[in-house]
Amino acid sequence: MENNKKDDNNSRRNFLKLGLLAGAGTVATGALIVTGKSASGESGEKIKVLTTTGEVMEVDKNFLTQAPVGRKESHLGIPGRKFVMVIDLARCKNARKCVTECQKGHNLPKETEFMKVYLMQDSEKTAPYWFPKPCYHCDNPQCVSVCPVGATYKRSDGIVLIDNERCIGCKFCMTGCPYSTRVFAWKPDEAFDIDQPYSPEKSVPGVEGTVSKCDFCPDLAREGKLPYCAQACPMGVIYFGDIDEDVVTNGTETFKFSELIRDRSGYRYLDNLGTRPNVYYLPPVDRQFPVERGLDGLDEETLKRFENTPYVKNAKISKEAK
Amino acid sequence: MSDTVNSDKLLKEFAPQIERTGNFGKLWIAFLCLVICYGWFALYWQVSRGHIVTGMRDNVVWGVYIVNFIFFMGISYAGALISGTLHLFHSEWRKPIIRMAEFITIISLLIGPCFIMLCVGRLDRLPNLILFGRIQSPITWDVIAISTDIIGCILFLYLALLRDLGKMRDFTELKVPQWQKKMYKILALGYTGTPEQQLRLKRATDVMAGMVIAIAIIVYSVLAWIFSVTLQPGWHSTIFGPYFVIAAVYSGTGVLIVSMFVFRKVYHLEEHITLKHFVNVGVIMLVLGAFFGYFTFSEYLTKWYGSEKNDEQLIQVLLKNYFNLFILSNYVGVLVPLIVVGFRKLRTINNITIAAVVVVIALWINRYLIVVPTLETPYLPIQDERLAWQLYSATWVEWALTAAGVAMFCLLFTIGSKLIPIVQVSDLKEEPEQPGDLHLM
Q1: Model-level ipTM above the cut of 0.90
Q2: The domain containing residue B226 runs over which residues?
Q3: CATH label of the domain that carries residue B357
């Protein structure tokens, strides 16, 4: 807990909030911050900015980044948006890029996953399939209803976020969510000690003793980018878009949301619970990969997860029989 | 006039427990303090290393702590409902045991909420519950209900204590330190037992007796709703409110009988607490046990018979992984008191106490079986390579804090009995031995 306080001070020292001068509109509008370092080095392109003391300063473009949306603003949601995700189960082969890239993007400890991939089999005789599961950002979110302090909230753009600086860690939301979406920071982790101002839109840095989950990456949406999982998926399984604009894209293909759902019989998982999720699934028909391909190339630990699934058990038995 | 003579005589009888603590008593207190210190160490361990030192993980997010919370809140019912109801029914026989029941209520009400705090990841942010409290959340209902309950029960106990405090103040022969005498004087609020004071006290006690019954029902229902408002297959049940209330009073009577037995032995109250009291409380326990068994049966019958996919999965886990505990809590815990109290021949003080111990243990396990197996069988299958993430098993930290909670309960009970006679002396009259042994109301 003391660590966090120290970090707060650090970030305040390192980040200087600046107003953008008119005319320097090559970067997206909004509050910008000057960072001490940049991954890509200097670009040579200078931008004029106005400091809080009223001085005009020239800063290299690469040292400017969009200021993360603060705790208060993060309640509002991006105006005019209503986000939706479509996951094409026919294409998923458990490549797990969505999991790892999401972890990288959210600076998560190795054992924490916002996106999880399940090996599902609805009943004994039905076919098994791989099932990526983010947060469903329900329109009737149980987690939001039960939170005693308003630390988790629903925004106008449909996203459900968590304010890790208000969360008391009672974990009621975790029992409220029927989709096992939420994760708890059980111990202090070095991944939480990063030099960055906290933003609920980024879910970074994590805070020990609080709950977190998939956030639909609204910080990337503000930059016009897809969430980490959708960007990372090599099969284009994950489509992200806007339900009011009726469009979803996985980065290479773009569909009308309503037509995609109609033509491919899209559905929502456990819709009968009345949570009204904003994540839709396309059933695993005409698959691009056989399900066992998802077990290839997994490290031993991950492989162990699926050991107790009926599919893997049966496969083992039939192998031994041969 | 004979009343005062009587209570003076009684006070003289009870004075030794208050005046000194024997070697055994000192040893007992030292032992309890040791256990509590161990609990403090466990708490330090948990706070400094994070909740990872508990057995709780992302699926089973609540464990033994919440079980203890429900358990202690449940036994707090012994006083609230039993003493409240018996007071309103003017049951004469209640008098020697009513103080114990009220002590149980207050003490467990103070310990119970500590356990829910142990579940909270950020204790430093507890003020947020007030600063940003949302009335939509059942936890906020709980905060309001429990704090009301604590205040109501303390008032009720205090009103019941008032006459004894006056007696203690006026009883000059009592050999206690000066501060203790002063304490009696201040707490007695100048009560001398004038007719007007008596009337006022009676009215206030009547009102509070009614209130604590109502509040206690609300508190326990709210606690049940924390579980039943969620969509979890094992929790999303309409009968959880009344079921929890019944289970709570049931466990409360169990703890009451055990403490009657202990205090009777330790303070030699054989004259005041007789088989009659054990049988009468035992009969209350029997009735509640029958209700509890009925609720449990209908709860699991509908789940099992309807066999909805997730209910079926839960029942399977209960009957496979938790078979022994399931039988112990839901069969043994119901049948033993039914048989022991049901058959006149078996009704001895020892037997009834053993049945009560069985009930208390069974009810703790019952809560464990409500909380843990449900969380181990979520809608989505748990696919995790880490065993701790799949199955819950409490660690030494959780057990140490549980032991500390029980020790704290015993310690406060002991200290309470050292300050105030454990039997209400001002109300007690020497009753003629009555024929038969069952005089409930």
Answers
A1: no
A2: 2-419
A3: 1.20.1630.10
